[in-house]
């Protein structure tokens, strides 16, 4: 039951992201999405496969939920963060946004642990928060660099926000 709710959440968040008004060019979103997926999947591979700090269940449904959330849900959360981060320049807004978006992946991961999709081994929540701080910082810098590169190549015009 909870697994189907989580899959519904992934589908709903994907649909919402696809149909909402975008601030950046579609090519920029595609590049940033691919870089985010590469970085996050590499991180998950190191944590779960190499270091075995996260143990993913061997059953098919939890494994699929874990991999789909790795490729779709968590990168979409990062893209939403980038979108909202550039919306306003108010410092209080950005502090609130960072706090909220640090809470979202922590709660989603805790939900996955609660559903027994995977389990932590020698892993604490503060490590997850630290990882997401680094991940969001890298995502914002990546978005900026990709935007500058696309302007330089002439794919998007200079007046578009980057």
Walk me through this protein's architecture.
The protein is mostly helical and 162 residues long. The protein is built from 5 helices and 2 strands; from the N terminus they run H-H-E-H-H-E-H. It has one domain. The chain has helices at residues 2-19, 26-50, 60-85, 91-114, 125-153; strands at residues 54-56, 118-120. A two-stranded antiparallel ribbon has the order 1-2. The radius of gyration is 17 Å and the shape is globular. The termini are far apart. The model has no long low-confidence stretch (mean pLDDT 90).
Number of domains: 1
With strands numbered from the N-terminus, the spatial order across the biggest sheet is 1-2
- Strand segment count: 2
Global Rg? 17 Å
Globular, elongated, flat, extended or rod-shaped: what is the shape?
globular
Helicity range: over 70%
Q: Please report the distance between the alpha carbons of the first and last residues.
A: 41 Å
Q: Outline the biggest β-sheet.
A: 2 strands, antiparallel
SSE run: HHEHHEH
Helix vs. strand class = mainly alpha
User: What's the average pLDDT?
Assistant: 90
Main attributes of the structure:
2 strands, single chain, Histidine kinase N-terminal 7TM region domain-containing protein, membrane, 5 helices, mainly alpha, 162 residues, transmembrane helix
Concise structural overview:
A two-stranded antiparallel sheet has the order 1-2.
Helix-strand layout with pairing:
Blueprint: H1 2-19, H2 26-50, E1 54-56, H3 60-85, H4 91-114, E2 118-120, H5 125-153
Antiparallel strand pairs: 1-2
Helix pairs in contact: 1-3, 2-3, 2-5, 3-4, 3-5, 4-5
């Amino acid at each position: 039951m909870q697994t189907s709710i989580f899959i519904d959440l992934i589908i709903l968040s994907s649909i919402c992201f696809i149909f909402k008004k975008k601030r950046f060019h579609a090519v920029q979103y595609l590049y940033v999405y691919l870089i985010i997926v590469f970085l996050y999947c590499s991180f998950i591979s190191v944590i779960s496969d190499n270091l075995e700090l996260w143990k993913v269940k061997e059953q098919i449904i939890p494994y699929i939920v874990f991999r789909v959330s790795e490729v779709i849900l968590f990168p979409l959360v990062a893209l939403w963060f980038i979108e909202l981060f550039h919306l306003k320049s108010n410092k209080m807004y950005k502090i609130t946004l960072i706090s909220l978006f640090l809470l979202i992946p922590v709660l989603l991961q805790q939900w996955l642990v609660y559903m027994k999709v995977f389990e932590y081994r020698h892993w604490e929540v503060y490590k997850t928060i630290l990882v997401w701080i680094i991940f969001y910082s890298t995502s914002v810098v990546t978005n900026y660099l990709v935007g500058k590169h696309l302007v330089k190549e002439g794919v998007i015009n200079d007046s578009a926000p980057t």
